[in-house]
Amino acid sequence: MPKKTIILGIESSCDDTSAAVLEDGYILSNVMASQDVHRQYGGVIPELASRAHQQNIVPCVSEALRRADMKMSDVDAIAFTRGPGLLGSLLVGTSFAKGLSISSGKPLVEVNHLQGHILSHFIKEYGKENRSPSFPFLALLVSGGHTQIVKVNDYLSFELLGHTIDDAVGEAFDKCAKLLGLGYPGGPVIDKLAKEGNPDAMRFAKPNIPGLDYSFSGIKTSLLYYLRAELEKDPDFIEKNKADICASFMKDLIDILMKKLILAAKQTGIRQIAIGGGVSANSALRKRIVEEGEKRGWETFIPEIKFTTDNAAMIAIVGHYKYLQGLTSSLDVAPISRAAEYNG
Predict the structure, then answer these.
(1) Within a domain: residue 270?
(2) Domain presence at residue 187
(3) Co-location of 296 and 150 in the same domain
(4) pLDDT tens, 92-101?
(5) How far apart are CA 28 and CA 125, in angstroms?
(6) Per-residue model confidence as pLDDT tens digits over 266-303
(7) Are residues 117 and 198 in the same domain?
(8) Which of 67, 87, 136, 329 could form a disulfide with 333 if both were Cys (CB 3.0 to 4.6 A apart)?
(9) Using 50, 70 and 90 to split pLDDT, how confident is the model at 42?
(10) How far apart are CA 92 and CA 108, in angstroms?
């Protein structure tokens, strides 16, 4: 019986420290340590994030190996997030992975964080039905820092069809939450409140961007001006209409996302459609993808909630496919903060 491939994954791109162990693509462990310290500041503070990673990374990796009943001697390769992300956070993960590689003699595999979100659909779990899209498929990648439509030709072949020219959709959710005094992160709170509101109560200015690119700066400004005008008439407007504002703004954001995704499916003729990234946890977006799929004959793929956030299992699955192709990294590899600089 051939030896199974064991990959240790390490994720530290933003404010979640995570370590995971995969066995031939099957998840054995996926440990996460979140950082609540950022809530009081209304956003992630890079310096605090990198310090927390330093505290969390050793316990996370140790616990991931323990839960998987593995030792470093059992591991075939160490996959780590090279970028994009916060440079200080990435430095912690990259440096730790290098040290572990030197001490254990195991090869390094650098991973693009965005590819991890896309390939999260290929993470398998023992005892479950494991559905995954067939190639080629379209991936709508939506998060706090990125909004993209990607054509996925193979496990390691990605073609960017469209992206945001300014802000990401996750930033729009957070801006709305800030204006309404809902705290950070804003997406989950807006999602919850929107269920109590009328999505057709208000309309906001939508962008008219050619092709498959997105823009979300205009709709954020539209919301700001709308609230300013209404607050002048009624200082309690937000409190009285909070649920309707959330429902209406969220509907418009999803309309923007879906319009370009539908266009991409028409232009490419691809009917395998997947979503990924932190915003793919949004209940209305998940429902809308399924509805459009049933209407248009798509086969849709929605990740489990636990795989929508930044996690090491998605880094390990990319590492798995790269390792099988012999794509390992040297010890002089450096983290890269911007997606535009790193397509590997």
Answers:
(1) yes
(2) yes
(3) yes
(4) 999 999 999 9
(5) 8
(6) 999 999 999 999 999 999 999 999 999 999 999 999 99
(7) no
(8) 329
(9) low
(10) 15
- Rounded distance, CA 242 to CA 36, Å? 25
Name which of 34-38, 216-220, 337-341 the model is least confident about: 34-38
- Cβ count near 236 (within 10 Å): 8
Question: pTM for the whole thing?
Answer: 0.92
Q: Are residues 296 and 316 in the same domain?
A: no
Q: Whole domain around residue 39: which residue ranges?
A: 6-129+307-341
Q: What is the pLDDT of residue 144?
A: 78
Domain count, the chain: 2
DSSP result, 27-81: EEEEEEE--GGGGGGTS--HHHHHHHHHHHHHHHHHHHHHHHT--GGG-SEEEEE
Residue 1 falls within a domain, yes or no?
Answer: no
Q: Are strands 77-83 and 6-11 parallel, antiparallel or unpaired?
A: parallel
Nearest 5°: the CA angle 125, 129, 131 is 95
**Can you spell out the DSSP letters for 161-199?**
EEEBSS--HHHHHHHHHHHTT--SSHHHHHHHHHTTS-T
Indicate if 235 and 311 belong to the same structural domain. no
Q: In what order do the strands lie in the sheet with 17-23?
A: 26-33, 17-23, 6-11, 77-83, 108-112
Question: pLDDT tier at 142 (50, 70, 90 boundaries)?
Answer: very high
- Integer angstrom CA distances of residue 83 from 88, 203, 343: 11, 36, 10
